[in-house]
Design a protein that fits this description.
With 461 residues, the protein is of the alpha/beta class. The chain is 24% helix and 28% strand. It has 3 domains: 51 residues, no CATH class; 210 residues, P-loop containing nucleotide triphosphate hydrolases (Rossmann fold); 175 residues, Ribosomal Protein S5, domain 2, CATH 3.30.230. Helix 7 crosses helix 8.
């Protein structure tokens, strides 16, 4: 049973004692000891005892909590605000992870520049532990991110960083990177588990106590995961992954965790020599503009999070003189390409076993959405017979092993995006709902029906 007992606490130094005394034994104040009732729980398993003290601040009904005190402030970078859920919340901690050279520092330098331009009361502090202040200034000159309210500090000691925060009093703090920071009072090597956890905890406490928005840069492992302990992702409020191919200018910020918004949003950027720029309409990067259709190409609409993206799938078949024909895949799942080839040969009678098959996407786009299966099957069949598909048509649907075309999510949003970009026809799975005006929809239940719907009956053999 839980019973009520009393303890005594000094109102000056909050020292606790078991009985009342006239003079506090800790601070020496007279008459400052008052009774502080507390709840003592019964004996627990293991012989321990847990005591519950009455809080100094009572719990507040949720209806009386001010929800406007933690509103998001736009950073000035719309694509990043899209992923963050509107902007940075005061007192929040955001972890941005990505491979070396992908453009993390360039993006954050643009963020601190736009943040400083918001108002005269907004200051941003950029702390770098990997570069000198001069190197950051050179990048800022190149990208046009120089502003008088952007402060730079090349420091790797946590205590010194906290001192810079006291002097500058910024509303935005960027730490590049958390793995290069060190705390002298914590054991472990720089970048180790103990150091990273302690530094992140200290910066999180700073953000919550002062209301400063904190952006942390994190390294990634060979597998692409955030380096450091798993608790690092639990300590912060938002986790973002910055992705991109070194051979392409396209960069994507993908939300993994977000306490203030959706965690499946994607922001698109283009990395250029003079900085990084957000792309509000990235579908144009993934479509090959041409005046006439080419055999072996098909357009589909994939969903990256909640964002519909149009992409072009290309296929090329050539007669092979090798015992085992080659299969080369770029931007697509190799296993799904092999499955679609098997379905075409087994269910549709299209012989592809003696051909070398090359399948790829345009613009460096990576399609992991199964909804691209139908477009891939149509592109392969088109390349097999060297017949171009009708212009202005998209194909959306997942292909099963029985040759059936399965429904996919967000079909209405996909079709609306295709119609916005000028496509007038679509081949979709059955029972896909009412299409948006301006686009003609043909529902198909299997791959053979889809090939016939492309107005190329000779494709099916």
């Amino acid at each position: 049973m839980v019973k009520l007992k009393s303890s005594y606490r000094c109102s000056s130094c909050h020292h606790e004692m078991a009985k009342w005394v006239g003079k506090c034994p800790d601070c020496g104040a007279w008459g400052s000891v008052d009774e502080a009732p507390m709840l003592a729980a019964a004996q627990v398993k293991g012989g321990g005892q847990r005591a519950a003290m009455l809080p100094s601040t009572p719990a507040t009904p949720i209806t009386q909590v001010d929800g406007h005190a933690t509103h998001a402030n736009p950073t000035g970078v719309p694509e990043l605000d899209r992923v963050l859920g509107g902007g940075l919340v005061p007192g929040s901690v955001v972890l941005l992870a990505g491979e070396p050279g992908v453009g993390k520092s360039t993006l954050l330098l643009e963020v601190v520049h736009q943040w400083a331009r918001r108002s005269e009361s907004d200051r941003s502090l950029y702390v770098t532990g990997e570069e000198s202040a001069g190197q950051v200034r050179l990048r800022a000159d190149r990208t046009g991110a120089v502003h008088e309210r952007v402060y730079l500090a090349a420091e790797s000691d946590l205590a010194t960083v906290l001192g810079h925060v006291e002097q500058v009093r910024p509303t935005l703090l960027v730490v590049d990177s958390v793995q290069t920071m060190s705390a002298t009072d914590v054991d472990g090597v720089v970048g180790g588990v103990t150091q990273v956890r302690a530094i992140t905890t200290a910066l999180t406490s700073l953000a919550k106590a002062s209301g400063i928005a904190v952006l942390l840069v994190g390294h990634v492992t060979k597998e692409g995961a955030v380096a450091g302990p798993r608790t690092l992702e639990h300590l912060v409020d938002v986790v973002l992954h910055f992705e991109g191919d070194r051979h392409s200018t396209l960069r994507m910020v993908r939300g993994v965790k977000n306490r203030f918004g959706a965690s499946d949003e994607v922001g698109c950027f283009e990395l250029q020599e003079d900085g990084i720029e957000g792309i509000a309409d990235p579908s144009g990067l993934f479509l090959q503009h041409r005046y006439e259709s080419v055999p072996g190409t098909a357009v589909t609409v994939t969903m990256d999070g909640k964002r519909p993206l149009l992409g072009e799938v290309q296929a090329l078949l050539t007669v092979s003189h090798m015992p085992t024909p080659r299969r080369a895949v770029s931007g697509l799942d190799y296993n799904r390409v092999a499955m679609v080839l098997a379905v075409l040969e087994s269910r549709c009678g299209i012989t592809v076993g003696k051909f070398e098959v090359y399948a790829a996407t345009v613009g460096g786009m990576r399609m992991t959405d199964p909804s691209a299966d139908l477009a891939l099957a149509i592109a392969i069949a088109s390349a097999r017979d060297d017949r171009a598909l009708p212009t202005g048509m998209v194909a959306i649907g997942e292909v099963g092993l029985a040759g059936e075309v399965r429904r996919v999510g967000g079909i209405t949003r996909r079709l609306a995006e295709a119609q916005r970009l000028g496509f007038t026809r679509a081949v979709v799975p059955p029972k896909s709902g009412t299409p948006p005006p301006g686009i003609k929809v043909t529902e198909v239940s299997n791959v053979s029906d889809a090939l016939r719907a492309m107005a190329r009956p000779a494709i099916v053999r």
